[in-house]
Amino acid sequence: MKPERLIYTFVSYASHYNAPGMQGTAVEGVERTARLAHRYQIPVTWIVNRGSIPVLEDRIRQWHEEYGDDVILQCPFFMEDAGMSKEVLKNRLESDWQLVQEAFPWAVTKIAGRGKIYNEVIEVLEELDFQGMWGYCWEQVWWDGITHKGIPWGSWYVDSSRYKVPHPGKGKIVACEWTARDLHQTWHTGSPVLYSTDPNDVFRAGLCSGDNIEYWKQVFDEYLDNTDHNDQVFFLQQQEGHEMEYSDSFSVFPVSHVEACEGMLDLFFRYVAGKGVTMTTLPKALALYHDRNEVTAPVYMLTRDKPVRPEVNEYTMTLGGVGLGPWPDTFLYYDNQCQMVFVKGECKPRLLRNYVGQWNMQEEFTEEIPPVFVTKYEKSPDVIELEFSIGNWKPIPFGLVYWDDLSGFEAVSCPEGAEVKLIKDELAFLRFNLTGNKSTLRLRLERKN
Q: What are the distances in angstroms from CA 271 to CA 9, 71, 139, 213, 268?
């Protein structure tokens, strides 16, 4: 485990609102959130807009000086606020960012935030030299009006003409997820909203309470475990400031929910701060991503079942109930060409999303998976040899996994044009592309001397 490779960022909506149950800027909720994070020296990234900047600027400047807090800009809605006009959106973003710079001259990494994303939004951000877009939601459908199913999780370069697809090279905009998900339970249950790091959602689902965050600890430790085979593992958590307040102006949740979420965040911040991870702001994390990655970085995540289960209640039944498992160990992967999911014991992926040549952003990019045959399998205490055969199949990015106790083994040969990576001494992952012709792939593992 290499905890310094885990990049933890905490983001909080701190915008001005004019809606039922939300009037003005939630100063009380913002201050409560800040006290919790700063108690453990965790810097907060605040999502501000033109209405909240004059209300919060003195506080945020002080927090920046004392704790390193930073800001990103709430992006106007392309449809609702800009009337689907790129020019209107561009003018609004330009003028709003000018307000950010006047109030917070140290804000140099330009990031916009909003969950409803379109090609036009990414194109405008590129034109205005923004470097990131916060608000992507892995596997999400319908909830909050956001359907992003098909995208990768975490951070990746966005293709401006295909906002749900990684850029084939080094894009200008890095995607930032709304809040980190439990990859394992999300994929197996199809419930990304419940199995997440959002305090209100996990509280309502019965996964955590004000004095019990064992589920969150298990999720965080899983990300931490995966630092062994990733150069960077991003863990972004978000909580709205207006959901941390119960007052005449803000009554999104009852006071009991506010108090429970306060307890959860206090316990979790303490846990994160004691793990030796890199705690930073979203702008700094994103600048690091740009500096270190010429293309979307491949991400390798070995995930496991977690014994904590949601309650069966009104909230968890909203989308038709939640699967309760148990679920087998699962390996998830993505790069700038594809996303794959493998279930323990199976060589071929259960899910393959192909990003190459995709253009319809209403799709989920799922490919049919070709039959895979193991035509040779020989195993001794010191050598493991496998031969995989795949018939004629269209050219697509692909991968295979061999699951076994691989303690002490290393790959000494793999197919030409393929890459092999051993994960936690539990699996060997082969990444390659199918060409349209029949394929034979040979892998040899030997015990190290």
A: 14, 24, 27, 10, 5
